[in-house]
Design brief:
TIM Barrel, elongated, Beta-Lactamase, binds calcium ion, 43% helix, 623 residues, 3 domains, alpha/beta, five-stranded mixed β-sheet, Alpha-Beta Plaits, binds ligand C2E, eight-stranded mixed barrel
Length: 623
């Protein structure tokens, strides 16, 4: 690299003046027989800031720093040890254009372009390992950072040797800014993936040295896609900024938090300064998310939960620690979200089991592998059966009967729940219509998941099920969990109103677990509250729990709703529920979910045989 004083050269005077007036550096590529090099002319103004008008730029102009850089050389050096990677630096602004390339890209290489601003872009071409938790993209980002810095350091070195103090400050500022940009997320200002990977590396080394256990927490927003879909991306971005701030506020200074991209965050906890278990940190994070977010543009405060995967201890590489935390996160999502899980090696097997189930589920509906079982619902006053809840089971071709918690989360994730939900509605209504025809008037409750309520199709599915089965609409109860109600309140309220319009009833399932208030509930056309099993089971443990259930029942009564207690397992529970004037109950004490035949045989009125020639006279034979 050489310093050239262009002021002495008539040939470059025009460039010099152009730099002064435009405020931009001038970059002129030269190619000699052997090498390509770049002439750079950077204007320097008083106060190290660029004046905004032409006149003030001329007035404050101190001079320009001119130099020659051989980018090929810098690039070649930066690419050492990165075979199969190619990098192109290009500059384009006004009439100046320059392109410098180095390395050879392999077939199938993926290109990543990073805008360094000031007219510069860097494009890298490299093979990216598909599906890996830690994709090469972050390695590339690090590489690019390295290259950018070498280039800037080269400039810095030149300026130092020419000892122009102001220019030094200017370049120093630019270096810092660029470096910050390269290592931080522009939306939240948090460390980005590249910097986090570097911090994990340091964390692993430090903890290995101290013999302590560090941890990585992988955090992902639950159903963030819904926010983007319903409120738009700008609102989604604002939410991410608020979430980042809230998460950061819940951590100690010693912990590091970064954004990995999208709605994924990572928190690093150093074992050396670890005062509380990582699990407690995760709990604190879940806790701070419970408070709703006030977002401009959203009519109601928004509840956003997170799921957290934790990996604790040493690993051979930062990627390994993150991969394990990601596996644990997957597990947390699969077991109901809004929770944390700590990685253990068997989880890997669970992940492959889920993948297998997901594959097998694709043909389950077609293969007629779904079944419904029916759990009776009792009136607490006289213990008569007033209805049944239809519950889904899957007859897996090789693994036997699977429970819903094993496969419903997968159906929800893949969106298949809509199709399967349609089947459930039709099958349940058809079964109940048949029982009605046999003289057993009862209600049928059908569970509908949040994902089904995301689309207007649900209204058609309910209408269709009623038409096909011929069941009276007033005998159908649609169960929606409290959490699903609060997901997308406005659209959900409209869809539920349409379902009510058809004549069906609505029950709030798992009531008490979703933090909804009276104000929320009033918006929905609800008929019944199903008090979650958790409260039913707690009723016998303390006066407080009993008072709590009393409050839930009172809340229902205030709104004019029927109340039902789920999961009644003991007679003590049942007695106390009666004391609290709960209307209905469901639970293993009364009856387990039964298949249709067993239910008919045990609980329904016997079907009277049709006797030709009129009813059989109920008389004792005369002697
Ligand atoms: P849920 O709607 O709260 O259903 C009640 C669950 O509690 C059922 O579990 C039932 O077997 C169980 N249960 C009933 N009484 C007792 C009791 O006394 N003690 C205990 N420990 N448990 C009791 P199941 O059948 O495993 O269903 C689990 C969840 O799967 C359901 O919870 C519901 O959220 C979901 N689900 C089931 N079928 C469907 C469906 O067709 N569609 C949708 N979207 N979700 C369904
Ligand atoms: Ca239910
Ligand atoms: Ca429930």
């Amino acid at each position: 690299m050489d310093g050239i004083d262009y002021c002495d050269s008539n040939a470059t005077k025009a460039l010099f003046l152009f730099a002064r007036d435009s405020g931009n550096g001038v970059y002129v590529p030269y190619v000699t027989q052997k090498v390509a090099y770049l002439l750079i002319d950077t204007p320097v103004y008083r106060g190290a800031v660029m004046p905004t008008t032409l006149a003030t730029r001329r007035e404050a102009f101190l001079g320009a720093i001119g130099m020659t850089v051989y980018p090929g050389l810098v690039l070649d050096r930066a690419l050492q040890g990165h075979r199969g990677t190619a990098v192109t630096f290009s500059y384009h602004a006004g009439s100046s254009t320059a392109v410098f390339s180095s390395g050879t890209a392999l077939k199938g290489a993926v290109s990543t372009m990073i805008n360094l601003h000031n007219g510069w872009t860097v494009t890298t071409f490299a093979l990216v390992a598909g599906g890996a938790v830690f994709s090469n993209a972050s390695a590339l980002a690090l590489l690019i950072t390295g290259i950018t810095l070498s280039l800037l350091l080269a400039i810095l070195f030149f300026v130092l040797t020419t000892s122009r103090a102001r220019a030094l400050r200017l370049v120093g500022e630019r270096t810092g800014e660029l470096r910050h940009q390269a290592l931080h997320d522009s939306l939240t200002g948090l460390p980005n993936r590249a910097l986090i990977m570097d911090r994990i590396e340091q964390l692993l080394v430090r903890n290995r040295r101290h013999g302590t256990l560090g941890a990585a927490l992988f955090i992902d927003l639950d159903d963030f896609k819904d926010v983007n879909d319903t409120l738009g991306h700008a609102a989604g971005d604002r939410l991410l900024v608020s979430v980042a701030a809230r998460l950061e506020g819940a951590l100690r200074d010693a912990d590091t938090i970064g954004r990995m991209g999208g709605d994924e965050f990572v928190v690093l906890i150093d074992g050396a300064s670890l005062q509380v278990a990582p699990e407690l940190v995760a709990e604190r994070l879940l806790d701070v998310m419970r408070r709703p977010f006030d977002l401009d543009g959203a009519t109601l405060p928004l509840i956003v939960n997170v799921s957290v995967g934790i990996a604790i201890g040493d690993r051979t590489s930062p990627g390994d620690l993150l991969r394990d935390a990601d596996v644990a996160l997957y597990e947390a999502k699969a077991s109901g979200k809004n929770r944390y899980e700590v990685f253990h090696p068997e989880m890997q097997t669970e992940v492959s089991r889920r993948t297998e189930l997901e594959f097998a589920l694709r043909s389950a509906l077609e293969g007629d592998q779904f079944r419904l079982v029916y759990q009776p619902i009792y009136n607490l006053d006289d213990l008569t059966v007033v209805g049944v809840e239809a519950l889904l089971r899957w007859e897996h071709p090789t693994q036997g009967l699977l429970q819903p918690d094993e496969f419903i989360p997968i159906l929800e994730q893949t969106g298949q729940i809509r199709e399967v939900g349609h089947w459930v509605l039709t099958t349940a209504c058809t079964q109940m219509a048949q029982w009605h025809n046999q003289g057993n008037a009862m209600d049928i409750s059908v569970n509908v998941s949040g994902r089904q309520l995301d689309s207007d199709d649900i209204i058609n599915h309910v209408r269709d099920a009623l038409n096909v089965s011929g069941l009276a609409a007033t005998s159908l109860i649609i169960e929606v969990t409290e959490t699903a109600l609060m997901r997308n309140t406005t659209a959900t309220a409209v869809r539920l109103a349409a379902i009510k319009e058809l004549g069906a009833k609505i029950a709030v399932d798992d009531f008490g677990t979703g933090y909804s208030s009276l104000a929320y509930l009033r918006q929905f056309p609800v008929d019944c509250l199903k008090i979650d099993r958790m409260f039913t089971n707690a009723i016998t443990t303390s006066p407080e729990s009993k008072a709590l259930i009393g409050t839930l029942v009172q809340l229902g009564k205030d709104l004019g709703l029927r109340t039902l207690a789920e999961g009644v397992e003991t007679t003590d529970e049942m007695d106390l529920l009666r004391d609290q004037h709960v209307d209905e109950a469901q639970g293993f004490l009364l009856a387990r979910p039964l298949d249709a035949e067993t239910f008919e045989a045990q609980l329904l009125a016997p079907i009277r045989p049709i006797v030709l020639g009129g009813p059989t006279p109920d008389v004792t034979p005369r002697k």
